[in-house]
UniProtKB/TrEMBL annotation:
The keyword Nucleotide-binding does not apply. Its EC number is 3.1.3.2. Its main location: secreted. Residues 8-79 form the Purple acid phosphatase Fn3-like domain. It comes from Salix suchowensis. It is found in: Secreted. Pfam families: fn3_PAP, Metallophos, Metallophos_C, Pur_ac_phosph_N. This is Purple acid phosphatase.
Length: 503
């Protein structure tokens, strides 16, 4: 066994001077005549602090048959204990407290200093190779992709006011301090307005010309577009609905993902749902016995992203922000009727006070409806078990990912359109839920992973777009307005609205 360092590889041919031999160095002379000359080239790498030594290796033969020509000695980071990758999340619906989570090479308690001089000491946790899963076939997480995660620090900032900006920094005098960062608390549950972004299946991509183990090509444009929205002040919270980093057992890639999302996740509440690439593994208790998590079995995800759940490996929760009640489930844990999660789902969505939060949004990674067949086909057992609850308790909208495109349905139940949206005065599709029939479903798995094409369109499918982007939502007590934003063009490619009868 060995500890895997993030592998980033570039061809020296990325420097055109190398192929054209524009930079020659004379290495051997016979009298005054040059007998041996070499050509040199330069490539640049974007490297983040992963707390462990790194090396540069020059090799030939490609990835399949590499032949090492030369290598550097180990190089250390100047401060492997540096506090990094702080991200905030909501702890409850009151919006008077926020959890800050960050990573450091040191297990010694650190602090978050925020607001008008308040300070809190962090609690510290980590996970080990022994916490990872394996099987008869070696897994990346346990057997050949392990990397020490350092220590994950967490502190809950209390005494906050909803919809209010604060600044914070984290660290200690011994390991150093982060920059001062400004964040904004979300609106409290039951208040009048919420502006949010939602998406799934984002992952990461290199910030240089490297080839890597697993690249999600759309992630950089999506992160940049959403960062611009957050910096504009028009975002209260973010919901990432499963397939978070795609580290899939190569643990160091969580660090790179956390680095990429810092401009977003350090500024507004970043809420998540678990997906197959975080949880699923053979004989691990997941519903689907695939090796999709690479042996992580949800451990890394739940450590880096502590949500307001009841306990470990029960990653379902609900939270209210503004006029919206979000019910967030795990499609990777047992959802069958009479299971623990099923009973929780029914208790949660049946108890929503619709006079306080008129909108009920149900979110989970796997879809119930998709016009994309094949590997990401719908699990009919999941749909048959859970869909009746959504109709019974008048869920307004279902958000999911797993399929890597964007698709919006009619008000659908049992694969039949029970109602169609009408056009409002601006030509926007409007779902009138004053006479509720069924929820609409939106597949929003187009935030990074290579896009999927559509198969034969289904009768319940209204809009299908295979472009990178995210969903932008604006909820008031009267309606929810939603837009699919193309992250490359920044153009709105689909708009729809849910009302309770107002025009």
């Amino acid at each position: 066994m060995f500890e895997y360092l993030k592998l980033q590889a570039q061809y020296v041919s990325n420097d055109p001077n190398y192929l054209e031999c524009n930079k020659q160095e004379r290495k051997k002379y016979n009298n005054t005549a040059s007998e041996v000359a070499t050509c040199s080239g330069t490539v640049s790498f974007h490297v983040i602090n992963i707390r462990t030594d790194i090396e540069f290796v020059f090799f030939a033969g490609g990835f399949e048959t590499p032949c090492i020509l030369t290598r550097s000695g180990p190089m250390k980071f100047s401060n492997p204990n540096e506090p990094l990758h702080g991200h905030v999340s909501s702890t409850d619906s009151a919006a008077t407290s926020m959890r800050l989570t960050w990573v450091s090479g040191s297990k010694e308690p650190q602090e978050v200093r925020y607001g008008d001089g308040r300070a809190l000491t962090s609690t510290t946790t980590t996970f080990s190779r022994d916490d990872m899963c394996t099987s008869i076939l070696p897994s990346p997480a346990k057997d050949f992709g392990w990397h020490d995660p350092g220590f994950i620090h967490s502190a809950v900032m209390t005494g906050l006011r909803p919809s209010t900006a604060y600044s914070y920094r984290y660290g200690s005098d011994s390991v150093g301090w982060s920059d001062k960062i400004q964040f904004r608390t979300p609106p409290a549950g039951g208040s009048d307005e919420l502006k949010f972004l939602a998406f799934g299946d984002m992952g990461k991509a290199p910030l240089d010309a490297s080839a890597e183990h697993y690249i999600q090509p759309g992630s950089l444009s999506v992160i940049k577009a959403m960062t611009d929205e957050v910096e504009s002040g028009n975002v209260d919270s973010i919901f990432h609905i499963g397939d978070i980093s795609y580290a899939t057992g190569f643990l160091v890639e969580w660090d790179f993902f956390l680095h990429l999302i810092s401009p977003l996740a350090s500024r507004v509440s970043y809420m998540t749902a678990i997906g197959n690439h975080e949880r699923d593994y053979i004989n691990s208790g997941s519903v689907y016995g695939t090796p999709d998590s690479g042996g992580e079995c949800g451990v890394a995800y739940e450590t880096y992203f502590p949500m307001p759940t009841s306990t470990k490996d029960k990653p379902w929760y609900s939270i209210e922000q503004g006029p919206v009640h979000f019910t967030v489930i795990s499609t990777e844990h047992d959802w069958a009727e009479n299971s623990e999660q099923y009973k929780w789902m029914e208790r949660d969505i049946s108890s929503v006070d619709r006079s306080k939060t008129p909108w009920l949004v149900f979110a989970g990674h796997r879809q119930m409806y998709s016009s994309t067949d094949g590997l990401f086909g719908t699990d009919d057992k999941f749909t048959k078990a859970v869909e009746p609850l959504l109709v019974q308790y008048k869920v307004d909208m279902v958000l999911c990912g797993h399929v890597h495109n964007y698709e919006r349905t009619c008000s659908v139940y049992d694969s039949n359109c029970l109602a169609m949206p009408s056009k409002d005065r601006n030509g926007i599709d409007t779902y009138d839920h004053s006479n509720f029939s069924a929820p609409l479903h939106a597949v929003i798995g187009m935030a990074g992973f290579s896009l999927d094409n559509f198969s034969q369109p289904r009768r319940w499918s209204l809009v299908r777009i295979s472009e990178f982007g995210y969903l932008r939502g604006h909820a008031t007590m009267e309606d929810i307005n939603l837009e699919f934003v193309n992250s490359n063009t920044r153009q709105v490619q689909d708009s729809f609205r849910i009302t309770k009868g107002q025009k």
